[in-house]
């Protein structure tokens, strides 16, 4: 079996690793420290600004497509496509920031509708940023056929991509976060840290868990390594959804307690 690395979670994130991330070696495995994910409010403010700019791009694209705004420095179709591409980039950037903010400061799921809306703001904005353009371009009688076909096709593709990126496939609620932190309090964590892989959705309570044995690099969230946050909190903020079933059952067996709901799934 190949030797493995373990990486510490306080110096880098698994989603975007810096070129020279602080790490430690143990038994050939690299451990990377998790990183403070920053302010949820700041991320949401930037996301909203990006989304406003995205809608502005859509407005200009609509004005050009409906012949209400004439441009002389480039072909109108090229301008429309460029605006839609920029629109999409802004929508995606905003959606990713919004999702990251919701990992740091999740909403309550007591109100199911509000919870879904809050977690899927990126999807909602994507619809607002492209659907009006598609409809108005399709119904515009002044646009020539070729321009209309290309513009609508680009808009439709952008809509699909924006919706897929904006949709929150695995939302974390405030209740879920509190429950997991309560069960796996840092005072009783087996190793005073949790572990996870770059693309894994589960965090692990044991460094030797069989499900991360084949990973060359493991992210290690240590108790209090970032602003006094719990290890579980750091893992959840970095994109993990819940605890590994195997680790949760082992943890429960060692303490004679009932496994968490996540372990029963």
How many domains in all? 2
Major beta sheet summary: 5 strands, mixed
Report the end-to-end length measured between terminal Cα atoms.
Answer: 30 Å
How would the global form be characterised?
A: elongated
Q: Which stretches of 5+ consecutive residues score pLDDT under 50?
A: 11-21
- Helix/strand order, N-terminal first: EEEHHHHHHEEEHEH
What report would you give on this structure?
It is a single chain. The protein is of the alpha/beta class. Helices cover 49% and strands 9% of the residues. About 4% of the residues have low confidence. The protein has 8 helices and 7 strands. The chain starts with 6 loop residues before the first strand and ends in a 10-residue tail after the last helix. It has 2 domains: 119 residues, no CATH class; 127 residues, no CATH class. Helix 1 packs antiparallel against helix 2 and helix 4 runs antiparallel to helix 5. Strands 1, 2, 3, 4 and 6 form a 5-stranded mixed sheet that branches. It has a two-stranded parallel sheet with strand order 5-7.
Features of this protein?
single chain; 265 residues; alpha/beta; 2 domains; two-stranded parallel ribbon; 8 helices; elongated
């Amino acid at each position: 079996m190949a030797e493995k690395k373990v990486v510490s979670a306080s110096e880098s994130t698994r989603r975007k690793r810096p070129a020279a991330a602080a790490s430690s070696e143990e038994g050939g495995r690299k451990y990377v420290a998790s990183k403070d994910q920053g302010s949820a409010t700041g991320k949401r403010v930037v996301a909203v600004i990006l989304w406003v700019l995205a809608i502005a791009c859509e407005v200009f694209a609509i004005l050009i497509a409906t012949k209400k705004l004439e441009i002389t420095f480039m072909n109108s179709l090229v301008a429309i496509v460029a605006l839609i591409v920029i629109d999409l980039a802004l929508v995606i950037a905003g959606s990713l920031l919004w999702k990251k903010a919701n990992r740091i400061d999740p909403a309550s799921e007591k109100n199911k509708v509000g919870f879904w809306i809050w977690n899927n703001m990126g999807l909602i904005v994507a619809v607002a940023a492209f659907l009006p353009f598609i409809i108005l371009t399709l119904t515009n009688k002044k646009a020539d056929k070729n321009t209309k076909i290309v513009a609508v096709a680009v808009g439709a593709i952008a809509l699909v991509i924006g919706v897929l990126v904006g949709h929150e496939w695995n939302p974390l609620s405030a209740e879920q976060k509190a429950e997991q932190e309560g069960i796996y309090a840092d005072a009783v964590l087996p190793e005073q840290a949790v572990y996870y892989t770059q693309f894994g959705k589960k965090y692990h309570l044991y460094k030797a868990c069989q499900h991360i044995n084949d990973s060359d690099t493991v992210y290690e969230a240590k108790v209090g390594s970032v602003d006094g946050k719990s290890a579980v909190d750091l893992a959840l903020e970095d994109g993990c959804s819940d605890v590994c079933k195997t680790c949760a059952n082992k943890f429960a067996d060692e303490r004679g307690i009932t496994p968490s709901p996540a372990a029963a799934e």
